[in-house]
Write a structure and sequence with these properties.
Helices cover 44% and strands 20% of the residues. It is of the alpha+beta class. The mean pLDDT is 88. It comes from Ferviditalea candida.
Length: 256
């Protein structure tokens, strides 16, 4: 966000507080739950919800007495996706990667100290994965976060790793020395692999995307059942992911 000497509009800030209270863990809420999350008075929350509902951004279910995100948000996400050059430039290559591997393919964009999934093409059979386009995750989450972390400037990396590391499974590395060693290896190889570290039974392979200035801006990768990856297939998929990432970076003007 630009740093301007302008005061924000409080009512709009409050409306976004309501929208931001909806998460994958709380996709539907009563007005009391929204008040608890936002600290808004009931009359204010109700007026804002009614306004958002009138514009299709919020839906109200009279059966459950709960509010949900509206379908207008999906339209906005489609507009955003169509305006992102990186998504348009990447879509054909990512579709080819999914066809070549038969596994689920995703792309996440770096945004501050978080990442946002902007592309997902899922395998028609086998495991389905919770991460979806539009969802935001911390950079300490999963194979895509690890790839993005690996190419951040050292001061930003140090700041992010100064906080406790989340543990998703018994295989998740939470020793910072071990994690930094893994990150340096990604910097060297330009591809990363994790096995059962975010979800048991799932293997992820990821690679970085760079812009014309040589800065990390995104990560792409493949997710699949660990049992489906023989040593040979794992190596082949690593090369396919790495090659696809390099092709996208080159389309964006990056030259090693």
């Amino acid at each position: 966000m630009r740093d301007l000497n302008i005061n924000t509009i409080r009512s709009i800030d409050k409306a976004f507080d309501i929208l931001n209270s909806f998460t994958p863990d709380t996709p539907a809420q009563t007005i009391d739950e929204i008040m608890k999350h936002t600290k808004l008075p009931k009359s204010t929350a109700y007026r804002l919800l009614y306004t958002l509902e009138g514009n299709g951004v919020i839906r109200y279910d009279p059966q459950t007495l709960k509010y949900k995100p509206g379908f207008k948000l999906f339209e906005y996400s489609q507009v955003l996706a169509s305006s992102l050059d990186i998504v348009k430039e990447s879509e054909q290559i990512l579709t080819e990667l999914q066809n070549q591997t038969g596994k689920t393919v995703l792309m996440s964009l770096l945004e501050g100290d978080t990442m946002v999934y902007v592309f997902k093409r899922e395998s028609q059979v086998g495991l389905k994965y919770a991460s979806s386009a539009g969802e935001r995750r911390p950079l300490t989450y999963g194979i895509f976060g690890r790839v993005l972390l690996a190419f951040l400037p050292d001061d930003r990396l140090k700041a992010i790793l100064s906080k406790p590391l989340p543990k998703s499974t018994t295989y998740t590395p939470i020793d910072k020395t071990v994690l930094i060693e893994k990150l340096m290896n990604i910097r060297h190889e330009f591809v990363a692999v994790e096995i059962d570290e975010t979800n048991i039974g799932v293997t992820g392979i990821g690679a970085p995307i760079f812009n014309i200035e040589g800065s990390i801006i995104a990560a792409i990768g493949v997710l699949g059942p660990t049992a489906h990856f023989s040593d040979n297939e794992l190596n082949e998929t690593k090369q396919l992911v790495k090659d696809s990432a390099q092709r996208i970076s080159q389309k964006l003007g990056y030259s090693p």
